[in-house]
Amino acid sequence: MATGFRGNGSSSCKYKCDTAANTLQWIKAIADFIRPYSFLINAPVVNFFKDRLWEAVDEEWMECLRKEHVKNLLLIPSGAVQEYWPDSLKKFIRTSKSLALGREQADLQMVLPGWCIASLNTVLSQGMNQKKKHEVEVLSAIISLIASDLKSHAIVDVGAGQGYLAQVLSFHYKHSVLAIDACSHHGNVTSARSERIKKYYSAQIRKSGLETNSLRLPKAMTFHVLSVDALKSLANMSLQDDHADKTSVTGDDLEKTSRQELKGLCSSGKEPSLVLAGLHACGDLSMIMLRTFVECKEVKAVINIGCCYNLLSEYGSDNEGVQNGFPMSFGVKSSGLFLGKSGRDLACQSAERWRNLENEGGVHNFELHAFRAAFQMVLYKYYPEVVATFPSVGRQGKALRRRKKREAALSSQCHEDKLEASQSDLIGGLPDNSNAFSHTISDYGSTP
C-alpha cells in the first residue's frame, strides 16, 4: 500500500536500516505482511470485480467500507483510519503505514552547504514546462556542486532524453557532459538543440570580447541496449578538454572499439573520474546506474531521480538469465518476495494524489474501474477471441480525459481573468474606461 501522509503519525515507522540485521528484519516484516494478500496484489484492478475477489476480503471490512464516505476512502493509502472502523481493519492500515519508508523531505542546505538554485534563462529552458524547469534547476545545481567537490572529469547523463539536464550542466555550469539515451532520435534532438544554444552563448561571448574556444557542448551517444558493461566502458573516456565538437555514436560502435582506442579519447593521463546522473531514469535504468557505481571504481558518485518502478524487470519472472532490476538485494531474494506486474503498478500509486482528489474526482475514478471491469466481462462472454489477443484498452480514453481536464482548467482561468479585467475597468469608472470595456467584450465575447 502506498503511504506518505505526514499527518496522523507520519514518523510511526518502528524499523530501521542502520545495520544489515535491522534491514533484514524490516524486509522480512514487509514480506510476511503482504504474503497473505498476494491474491489481491497480483490481480489487475478489474479482476477485483470480474472475479468477485471481494468475497475473499473480511466481511466486516467490506460492510464498513461499503458505507464509508469517499473522502475517507481516499485517505486510506495515506494511513488514515476512522476510530469507528473494525479493529482488524485499523490494525491492517496502521501496520502498512509502519512498514513504509519515511518520506520526510531533507533540508538540502543542511546536507549540501553552499547549495543554491540558479534560475535558467529562456534559451536553456526553451521547451520545458514549469515542472521540468523546476526539476532541472534543482537537480543541476546539486549535481554541479557534488561534481565540483569531487573534481570529476565528466558527468554522464543517463537516459538524457532531449538533453535538458545535460545542456544546463554543460552551458551554465561549464561541466564536461556525456548525454546517453537508448533512442537515437533523442540523441539527434540533443545535438541539434545544443548547436542552437551554442550560437546564443557564442554570440554573448563575442560581445564580451572573449574567446569562444572554451565553450563546450554535451556529447550525445546512443546505446540501444544500455547495460552495466556499457556504462563501465565509458569510464575509460575523459571529456575534460572536449569543447564544441559534436560526437554521436552508438553503443554497438562503442563496444566494438578497443579499450586502447577509448583511452585515446582521453585528453589527460589521469584516471577518469565520472559522476552518473539521471532525471527520471526509467525502470531498470536506475538499477544499472547503482550497479555500475558499485562495480566501477572510476564512478565516484550517483545522483539519480528514478521513475516508473513498475517497469522494473523482476527476478523469478519470464526473463531468467537476465540481471533483473528487482530485487537488487540478496536479502529481498532470500525472503521469497515476489510482486509481479500488478503489484509493482500498485506500489507506484501516489498516496498524495489520491488524498488530494476532490469527492467528485474520487467517485469518477472508482466508476472508471467499475465500468472497465464490466466491459471486460462483456469481452470474456461475447468476444473471447478479442480477449485472447490481450488488447490494450483505455489508454486513449485516459489521455482524452487528461486533455479535457487541462482544457477545462485553462478555460476556467481565462474566464476568471476576463471577469477580473472587466471588473477593473468598471471600477475605474465607465465614462473613462468605456472603450477598454468595449474592447474586452469584442475580443473575448460575452461572458456566460
From TrEMBL:
InterPro entries noted in UniProt: Methyltranfer_dom, METTL25, SAM-dependent_MTases_sf
Annotated stretches, region: Disordered: 425-448
Domain Methyltransferase: 131-314
Biased composition, class Polar residues, residue ranges: 432-448
Top-level taxon of origin: Eukaryota
Protein name per its UniProtKB record: Methyltransferase-like protein 25 isoform X3
Organism for this UniProt entry: Cucurbita maxima (Pumpkin)
The gene coding this protein: LOC111477035
